[in-house]
Amino acid sequence: MSLPPHLQETFSPDEIQFIVENENIKIFPRITTRQTVRNYRNLSGNGDTNKTRWKLITSDENNLNNMVAMQTTEVALWVALLLKQQNKCSIIAPSWLTVKELSNKIRYEESYHDRFSPMPWDWLVLSNILFKKAADDFNDPIHELRTKIQDLREIRQLKVMKGLEQLNESHLQLDNLSLMEINELRPFIADIMDKLREVHASANANETQSQSQDINMSI
Amino acid sequence: MYGDLANKLILEAKRSKQLNSRSKDASKLSMYHEELIRNILKEISQLKRNTNYLREQQEMGNMDSRVAKCQYFVTLLCMERNKRCLLAYQKFRNDVLDSLAWENNGMDLLHDNVGITQDNSDLSPQEQEYLKEYSQLITEMKGGILSDIDISGSLDPPSDVFIDVRVLKDAGEIQTEYGVFNLIKDSQFFVRQSDIERLIQQGYVQKI
Amino acid sequence: MNIDINDILAELDRDTTVVDELGISLSSDGGNTTKFNSSENYQEKDGMQRDVGNKEARALVNRQPQRQHFSATRDFEELMRVWRNERCAPELLPYPQLLIGRMMKRIQSQMETIENISMGFLEDTLNASTYSSNNGRPSAENEDDIYGNSNIDNNNNNNNKLPLLCMEAEIERVKFVIRSLLRCRLHKIDRFSLYLRQVMDASEVEYDILLSDDEKLYHERHFNITLKLFNNSILKNLPVELQTIDDTEGSVSMIDFPDWKKFVFVYVKEVDIDQLGLEGTSELGLTKNEFGKHCYTVTIDDLDEEVEMSLGGIYVMRYDSVRQLLVDSKVQLI
Known about the structure:
- The structure holds 3 protein chains of 3 kinds.
- Chain A is mainly α.
- Chain A has helices at 13-21, 62-65, 77-85, 99-111, 123-133, 142-163, 179-218, and strands at 24-29, 73-76, 89-91, 172-173.
- In chain A, 34% of the residues are buried.
- In chain B, a hairpin with a 4-residue loop joins strand 2 and strand 3 (180-183).
- The longest helix of chain B has 39 residues, at 65-103.
- The radius of gyration of chain B is 27 Å and the shape is rod-shaped.
- By secondary structure, chain C is mainly alpha-helical.
- Chain C has helices at residues 5-15, 33-37, 42-48, 55-62, 68-88, 97-128, 158-191, 193-202, 204-210, 213-233, 273-283, 319-327; strands spanning 263-268, 287-288, 294-300, 305-310, 314-318, 331-333.
- In chain C, the strands form 2 sheets. Chain C has a 3-stranded antiparallel beta sheet.
- In chain C, a hairpin with a 5-residue loop joins strand 2 and strand 3 (294-300).
- At the A-B interface, helix 1 of A face helix 3 of B.
- Chain B: Keywords: DNA replication, Nucleus.
């Protein structure tokens, strides 16, 4: 098949990460790319390789061409990771990714049993990427952050499991569930709801049939 | 009983499907069950003769028409069921053949010997022809305005397009698809991962 | 799934100034920005526009001010949306001809840029002649010069090569999305091969919207070789009355069609309510529910149920219930 079976039902974890990598994130550059008017020349392709400029086809390259060392700027996550890999920037973790904030979220999850705390749609993936590739950029100890993220994930998973009782043939609302969580649940939830729908439809068909039989008999 | 053979065929398809879905390795087909298929086709011919007989008997008025109709109908269903199983079996194999063709970039699997896991003798002659034609189709789809994309390329998202590697043993100059590397022990390179993949497997270089 | 062709064509006429064709240079892309902003039915129209070839539009577009950066960002976002929708939708969605055309143009132009910059590095390298491993291969087929020797410990050029690394990595990303999108589409074309032939017979216009020229060719040829295989290995050995491949009269129809009621995950896109005003919101079909939240109302046919889908919400819904919202680009499959 032109699309392998494991990609037909849902996205692969790598694809989910790919989607998240397109989001913007704040960084501290360690290099300066901004050019003053004096030394500015448009040099790309002119043979002078001292100042190669960025030119992107999926996002704005303006920020990249105007980096000043230690001045915050915002770039796509995949660019940030590449710069980080080259030791050219440190990544600024999002404000919710601290031990304190995560503890708040966990408290929220524990006090409301029927809803999820509003987390960014990419919290799970983003935190895992940053733990892996920018571990030295966190202020809080990384193992503590990891534990908090894991706790949060488990509490939410538990809620999802309980919520599965409510699966029906009509519809379901899942506000505040993140991309990764949705992707993991997708095959399971969609399957069950499709099956429930079929059962419901055939039960209905039988009903209509027996009704029409009743009518026939009464005539 | 009628349909038993067809059922066997379907179970066989199901088993191979599970085998294929469990491993993320290359797709693989097991032996084409030619004899089983021939016997099912024979069964269908037999059923066909039965329907003819039943119709004659009915026309001659030799049978209770309700019983005859029912017999006739059940026989038709058996034939249809057998056809469905045969097609389902072939459809399943087609899907695997398609996967094989894509996994091998539309290369001619039967004639180029490019490290293929599929044993050609497991395919029927018709299947071999199909595989060849489909591979050809893929090759043609790769051309045209979309040739920059390489549609038969990897479906894994690109990650770490460039990596740092350390050379583990002297290997002299190595020619890759994109250029020449002078591999001197303990030197480090920042390279495109796809260029160096094979050298990593062969143990010449190591990802840092 | 009623797509009123006339409506779309009428809208197209109005929009010809923003029609972008394969032949148009990149700098003309700015023309699309207005269209994206008005959150119109982009996806469907994209599929339609290919038949509206017109030099006039080309001339007009070329006069548009250059706003390429913005447009590139929006186009990539659109591509990601199209890819995710295609992967999640049970049916084959209209081929995004114009979008793919623009993306291919960008890739080509970007590859040229990269080549030019690399050529500069190569010249430097050769002039300095300190590096041995880059010897003499022309940069046209040889992109290794951007990293071939970037011994990470001591390389002043590394900062300058950084943009190139990014640009190369970026191209791989764009290629991946397009490849995955096209492969997903081919999978659906195979899966619904017979159904799509019915579509083709019933309405050539609709068939044209759904498939690109390449895809049509693939559909036709793959069907033929598949049919040949089925015929030779099975069908021709059966009694005549059982020899068809697309029988719908038997106890089970042989034509597989999309499961219109399949449950899908949707995200309801946010809308700037303040900017739209009361009239704008009701025009979109938005109403305020009892909690003061803006939402669309959809119907679940079999159950005679109405469901409110509030902006920013995530739902699991039957595909046919949200299909119109998807066509209108008000929701996105996730």
